[in-house]
Amino acid sequence: MRDQTPSRTAAWVAAARAAGMLLPDEVRLADDPYGAAFTSPRIQRLIDRARERGPSAAVTIPGLGEWVLYMQVRTRVLDDAVRDFASDGGRQLVILGAGYDCRALRLPELEGAAVFEVDHPATQGHKQITLERLGARSPSQYIHWNFEQQPMEDLPAALEAAGHDPRAPTLTLWEGVTMYLTEPVIDTSVRTVARYSAPGSALAMTYFNKARIARPTLATRALATLVARVGEPWKWGWDPAELPAWMEKRGFQITRDISLADVAKTLLPPDMARRVDDPDRRVAIVARESIALASRA
Questions:
Q1: Where exactly are the structural domains of the chain?
Q2: pTM of the model
Q3: Taking the domain 74-296, which CATH number applies?
Q4: 3-state secondary structure of 93
Q5: Cβ pair 162, 192 in contact under 8 A
Q6: Of 24, 132, 181, 244, which one has the greatest count of Cβ atoms within 10 A?
Q7: Residue 223 — pLDDT band, cuts 50, 70, 90?
């Protein structure tokens, strides 16, 4: 992203989450009442037009429908990871590249938890101003961070200064970020997460199969060109078959790795699930050690 400009792709994600609230109750997977506030006027007008057309209109608009359904699935998977972690006793959440994530406000399971949002100052500044305008006070601790310029080795100290307890389990969310980083930053970031993650901690992340970047389809090439034009080009992906060994070298074990297209088949009606048909967008959950084992240690 450009140094002084809030993330455009984060605004697109927020818009998709907001548009998800236009879906019928029986197929809606996640609600984000704050998302629309972070969008551009143009995207807001598109959402407003969909709202005027009534329930399910969000999935009938070409292009928008696929994006909304994909984001519903992605959001739900990571929301469930937060819920599972909290139900097991986890009370610390770190969100790397938080963008306009509002889980600290919208997930009741995080009430009383310590939430640390790490992101670029321009994006966080816009987020804080927007929430203040809405009268919404997030309990999150904000940590300004430029992932491509600041040394990730310094992040654990910054987290601890903000109140993070490195002795307690932490769930780290890394949503919609890895594809925009270089390989050295990815490597250092995962090693850093391992450093501040006590036994019982986990990392939940989305990623691209590297084939999506190395051998893109025409549709993927067009989307890659669009995000590059706003200063956020795709740079990185993993081969799913190689990810377990890659993570083990950095202190983590895979507990779940699945394409969001396959997740969609379990969460959406068949006609909607078919529209989330990109097998190269994936989510992985990796663990340091279970909370139960850590409590017995």
A1: 74-296
A2: 0.88
A3: 3.40.50.150
A4: strand
A5: no
A6: 181
A7: low
